[in-house]
Amino acid sequence: MYKLLLVSDQEEVLNAFDQIQNWELSGFKPPHIRHDYDGMLDSLSKHHADGISIAVTSPEEEEKMLMYLQEYYPKVSIFEAGRTPDEVLRYLNELKILLNRIHADFSNERTYENADMLQVCRHEFFRKLINGKIEKPEDVYRNMRLLRSRMDADRPSMLIELSLPQISDDQLEGRWHYGEERLELALRNSFGGDYNGMHILPTIHPDGRILVLCCPLHGVEQPYSNIDEMTATMTAYIAKCIQHMKEYQGLELHIVDIRILPALTVLCKEQ
Fold first, then answer.
1. In the prediction, which pLDDT does 103 show?
2. What's the average model confidence in pLDDT over 57-68?
3. Which residues touch 72 (CB under 8 Å, ≥6 apart)?
4. What is the mean pLDDT of residues 183-193?
5. I need a labelling partner for 23 at 20 to 30 A (CA). Which of 14, 73, 87, 190 fits?
6. Backbone φ and ψ of 187, nearest 5°
């Protein structure tokens, strides 16, 4: 059974959780309930939590909690609270699906740590977002918390398209033992990670294009005075990564398009 912590001072949320019966049938133990920052710290010092939900009135209190969790519990999923029993069950189901994947047994496959699987799930979500398969902005915010993404969905980002050399599947599999999945892993190893206040995430589009998302990190002060400076810095960084791919993987990639996004949510279907 997964263990939960609810931190809320809102009657509507507390009543919705109180109406849930047979928690075990949903795969969870009844949640520990606290009402403020100090209560959250007290609960976490005494009880394990696989998922944490925060629904407090004060935005400052909420931000304080999120900062603490980012520093000390960066891998614990933060799920949406829900304000009706149906909403609570829907968001709990999202959490359970994620936790089941994170804790799945890969005995006959590559050994995955929980943090590795969380990263895989996070990457899959952003691939869907980049490919226009996420419906609404609220879906972006909810999933980014659930997956503990540190990217800031509300600040300007960049989406850089790279050309992919015309090489056959046989070359991918035979020459350097990469299919498309392994190619994307190689791109993540060369391009991915944090750089100068930005998180870099390369993905392969279903039509074969390589798309690299460059997004500011939440809570990190940006060193750029304007969009042009950000674009120049990140373009130079991508150019260095391209050179690395050429030297170590034998692939000669090129930047073919740079798109400035006012926010990640513009990638949603509804936008």
1. 87
2. 96
3. 44
4. 85
5. 73
6. -65, -40
Residues 6+ apart with CB under 8 A from 90: 82
Would the pLDDT of 171 be above 70?
Answer: no
User: Where in the chain is CATH 3.40.50.2300?
Assistant: 4-103
Spatial CB neighbours of 247, under 8 Å, sequence gap ≥ 6: none
Q: How many CA atoms lie less than 13 Å away from 5 in the CB half-sphere?
A: 26
For the residues of 52-79, what is the DSSP string, one character each?
Answer: EEEE-S-HHHHHHHHHHHHHH-TTSEE-
Give the residue range(s) of CATH 3.30.70 domains in the chain: 124-267
Listed range (154-163, 172-181, 240-249, 254-263) with the worst mean pLDDT:
172-181
4-103 has CATH 3.40.50.10610 classification: no
Residue 195 is classified by DSSP as: E
Nearest-Å Rg of the Cα atoms of the chain is: 21
Residue owning tokens 């995430």: 201
According to the CATH classification, is domain 124-267 in 3.30.70? yes
Average pLDDT, the chain: 89
